Amino acid sequence: MKTLEVRLPGKEYRIEIGSGILETAGETVRSVARGKKAAVITDSNVDSIYGGRVRKSLKEAGFDCFTVVVSPGEGSKSMEVYSEVCEKLLDGGLTRKDIIVALGGGVVGDLAGFAAATVLRGVDFVQIPTTLLSQVDSSVGGKVAVNLNAGKNLAGAFHQPKAVVIDTDCLDTLPDRVFSDGMAEVIKYGAIEDADLFRRLSALGGRTGIMSEIEDVVYTCVDIKRRIVEGDEKDEGGRMVLNFGHTLGHAYEKSGGYSRYTHGEAVAAGMVKIAKIGEEIGITRKGCSDEIRDLIRTYGLPDSIEIGLEEYSQAVGIDKKAEGREINLIFIEDIGKAVIRKMDTLRLIGLIRGVEA
Ligand code: NAD
Ligand code: ZN
C-alpha cells in the first residue's frame, strides 16, 4: 500500500492506495471517526459487488453501520435524490459525531459528499472511490455537488474528506467504457504535468498493460491532483490547469445531450483539438496533438467529435449578438507543461474553424 497526505490548513487527510485494501477500510474509517455509527452511501451496482465487504470491515472495526443505496447514474446527482438521502441518514439515526462513507464512482462521491457537507450542518466523510475517474480525480480535492436544472454541479460545497481509501482491485469489474472514461483524465495528467507518465502510458499500450502497474499509475495521478489542490483549494487559480481539454469537451458533452459521449470521451477529443489550436498559434510544440491523439486511441477513446461551429459558440457562451468575451484556456507548451492563456471566445471559434478547414 502507498499513502499520500493532503495538507490543507486545518484539514489534513490521508489517501491510501493499494490492492485489496477494501478489507481494512473499516480500520481506516475508525482512525478518523469520532462516533460509533457509519452510514454507507452507495449505488446499487457497487453495493452488489462491494457493499458486503465494506460493511463487514466496518463492523469488524466496531461500527454500527447502515446503508443508503441510490440508483446508478448521473440522475442520482439531483436535489430530489439528495433530499431522500438526507432523510434516510436521519432515519438511520445519524448524529453530528458520526461518519458517512461514500462508496462508489464520482456520482456517489459528489452526492454523498454534498450530503455530508450539509446534513446537520456538516458531518465527516470518507471517500472509497471505485471507478478509475473517481480514484484519480473526483475523490480528492473536496469539491462536492449535485446538479440543478440550470446546469451541472451548481449546488455544491467544498468539503474535504477525512480520508480516501483507493482499492485498485475495484477497477477489475469496471466495464471497458467506464474504464476508458477515467483514462482520459489519466492521460490529461500526463499531458499537463508529467511527460514521464505520458510516455509510460504509451508504453503500457492499453487496459491490460496498465493494470500491471495500476497502483503506481493511480498514485502518480493522485499525487499531481493533491499538489494542484494544495496550491488552490477553492479553485481560484492554479487548479484551472485541470481543465485542459474541458472547454471544448463541454461543447461535445452538451451537443450529445450529456448522454451520447462520456465525460472522458468528450475531454479526450477536446485535448486533441486544443493541442492542434495551440500548435497553430505557436504555443504548443508541433507534434504534440498527434502524440495525444495516438495515446487516446490506445485507450479506446475518440480523438475527435464532429459538431457545428454554432454548437461550439453556444457552449463557450457566445450570444445572439455575437459578442465575444475573454475566457481562460488551458494549453500545453509541450507534453507535461500546461499554461493558462486568456483568449476572446470569437477568436477561439475562428481558430476552431481554421484547424477544421
Ligand atoms: P459513476 O459514479 O456514474 O460510475 C459509472 C458507472 O460505474 C456506474 O454505473 C456505477 O454504478 C458503476 N461502477 C462504479 N464502480 C464500479 C466498479 N468498481 N465495478 C463496476 N461498476 C462500477 O461515474 P464516474 O465516472 O465515476 O463519476 C462521474 C461523476 O463524477 C460526474 O457526476 C462528475 O461531475 C463527477 N466528477 C466530480 C469531480 C470532483 O472534483 N468532485 C471531478 C470529476 C468528475
Ligand atoms: Zn474531467
From TrEMBL:
UniProt name for this protein: 3-dehydroquinate synthase
Record-stated family: Belongs to the sugar phosphate cyclases superfamily. Dehydroquinate synthase family.
- UniProt lists the gene as aroB
Q: Which residues form the 3-dehydroquinate synthase N-terminal domain?
A: 68-180
- Annotated Zn(2+) binding sites: E185, H246, H263
- Which residue ranges does the record assign to the 3-dehydroquinate synthase C-terminal domain? 182-322
Its principal location? Answer: cytoplasm
Q: Which PANTHER family match?
A: 3-DEHYDROQUINATE SYNTHASE, 3-DEHYDROQUINATE SYNTHASE, CHLOROPLASTIC
UniProt keyword Iron present: no
Q: Which GO terms describe its molecular function?
A: 3-dehydroquinate synthase activity
Q: What InterPro entries does the annotation carry? A: Dehydroquinate_synthase (IPR050071), DHQ_synth_AroB (IPR016037), DHQ_synth_fam (IPR030963), DHQS/DOIS_N (IPR030960), DHQS_C (IPR056179)
Q: What are the subcellular locations of this protein? A: Cytoplasm
Listed pathway(s): Metabolic intermediate biosynthesis; chorismate biosynthesis; chorismate from D-erythrose 4-phosphate and phosphoenolpyruvate: step 2/7
Q: Where does NAD(+) bind?
A: G106, V107, V108, G109, D110, T130, T131, K143, K152, C170, L171, D172, T173
Q: What class of enzyme is it?
A: lyase
List the EC numbers from the record.
Answer: 4.2.3.4
Cofactor names from the entry are: Co(2+); Zn(2+); NAD(+)
Known role: Catalyzes the conversion of 3-deoxy-D-arabino-heptulosonate 7-phosphate (DAHP) to dehydroquinate (DHQ).
**What's in the keyword line of the UniProt record?**
Amino-acid biosynthesis, Aromatic amino acid biosynthesis, Cobalt, Cytoplasm, Lyase, Metal-binding, NAD, Nucleotide-binding, Zinc
Q: How is the cofactor bound?
A: Binds 1 divalent metal cation per subunit. Can use either Co(2+) or Zn(2+).
